User: Which sequence fits this backbone?
């Protein structure tokens, strides 16, 4: 096989920016494997095993009149797996972006700014701003505590939205959430012994949890 990228080789690069995934929402069970392979292959072609590879996690989107199939959040999780497994990579979270019924959102500036923050860290050795992320969980009675990399707060009015928990049966229910610094305390009357949690597990939703740096809490699946 001869990929199109061969046409620009040989050339020296500071890094690669990659924004893709919408058309592969039906390949969620192997998307991370394909991404891993792509990164390795391109680094081999450009003869740089540490070539920075920055990519964009899918935002929210749904077509008008469509019932939410919840396949984009699974692909977002696959993208996160690739980011965690591969050194010298950066993933820009834009879960607060996207436009209803428009798969090509007009706000390009926000995407560019968040990729720049990733580049500051991965390419230039600085400390770029990044979204708060879930890093661990534990159970306290009927409450599931999800620990984050940084404190979050609700933007606007109301309670934290789009958080769900499940017991050992794997059936998720909407959770009530209390913010405790850099942790979320999740509970639900239907889940007496919660073991799993997920956040923003929709193709389309409006998130309201943000870090002190103004960046959105990254979507997560903690199982």
Assistant:
């Amino acid at each position: 096989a001869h990929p199109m990228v061969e046409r620009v080789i040989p050339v020296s690069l500071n890094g690669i920016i990659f924004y893709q995934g919408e058309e592969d929402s039906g390949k969620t069970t192997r998307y991370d494997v394909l991404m891993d392979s792509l990164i390795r292959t391109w680094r081999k072609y450009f003869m740089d095993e540490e070539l920075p590879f920055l990519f964009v996690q899918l935002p929210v989107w749904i077509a008008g009149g469509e019932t939410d199939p919840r396949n984009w959040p699974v692909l977002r999780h696959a993208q996160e797996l690739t980011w965690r497994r591969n050194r010298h990579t950066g993933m820009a979270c834009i879960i607060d972006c996207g436009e209803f019924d428009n798969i090509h959102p007009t706000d390009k500036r926000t995407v560019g700014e968040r990729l720049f923050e990733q580049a500051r860290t991965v390419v230039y050795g600085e400390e770029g701003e990044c979204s708060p992320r879930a890093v661990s969980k534990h159970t306290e009675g009927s409450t599931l505590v999800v620990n984050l990399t940084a404190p979050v707060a609700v933007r606007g009015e109301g309670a934290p939205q789009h958080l769900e928990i499940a017991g050992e049966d794997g059936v998720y229910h909407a959770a009530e959430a209390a913010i405790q610094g850099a942790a979320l305390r999740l509970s639900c009357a239907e889940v007496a012994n919660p073991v799993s949690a997920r956040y923003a597990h929709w193709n389309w939703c409006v998130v309201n949890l943000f870090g002190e740096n103004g960046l959105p809490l990254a979507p997560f699946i903690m199982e």
In short: The chain is about 20% helix and 25% strand. Residues 31-45 form the longest helix (15 residues).
